[in-house]
Design brief:
The chain has three helices and eight strands; from the N terminus they run E-E-E-H-H-E-E-E-E-E-H. The chain is of the alpha+beta class. The strands form three sheets. It has a three-stranded antiparallel sheet, with no helix packed on it. Helix 1 crosses helix 2.
Length: 133
């Protein structure tokens, strides 16, 4: 299961430009090539994730939706407090710091100042890495 990243959309290659989306190329295997990144597989949205949770846990879709929302909101709340969320065998969510830097406005080519920011990050655990490879 692959979740789309910046620039990759769940739109077939032939209809990509019709949808008014940024130019993204697809290779012969259907892998999305966007901004130098290659994404294999299909995209999974929230409702498909809920269906999968309900099927695997043998619970209703409503209960699976509430469970998924609870997990996501719990992770958000913990990260907002500055905590690290570790799911053994899956990975860790944590807050990283991005320092202030100089940038350039792509339209006008004028220099701009980009402020420092806190950014959410994820580091995959060994079991997840082994499952993918």
């Amino acid at each position: 299961m692959t979740v789309g990243n910046r620039g990759c959309y769940n739109v077939p290659p032939a209809r990509h430009s019709d949808a008014g989306l940024p130019d993204t190329s697809f290779d012969a295997n259907g892998a999305c090539r966007s901004r130098g990144r290659i994404h294999q597989g299909t995209f999974v949205n929230k409702s498909e994730m809920i269906d999968s949770i309900a099927r695997h846990a043998d619970i209703s879709k409503a209960a699976a939706g509430r469970a998924l929302d609870a997990v996501v909101s719990s992770i958000k709340a913990s990260l907002k407090k500055g905590d690290v969320v570790t799911l053994v065998g899956f990975g860790s969510f944590f807050v990283g710091k991005r320092s202030a830097r100089a940038g350039r406005n792509p339209r006008t080519n004028e220099p701009i100042k980009i402020r420092a920011a806190k950014v959410p990050k994820f580091r995959a655990g060994k079991a997840l890495k082994d499952a993918v490879n």
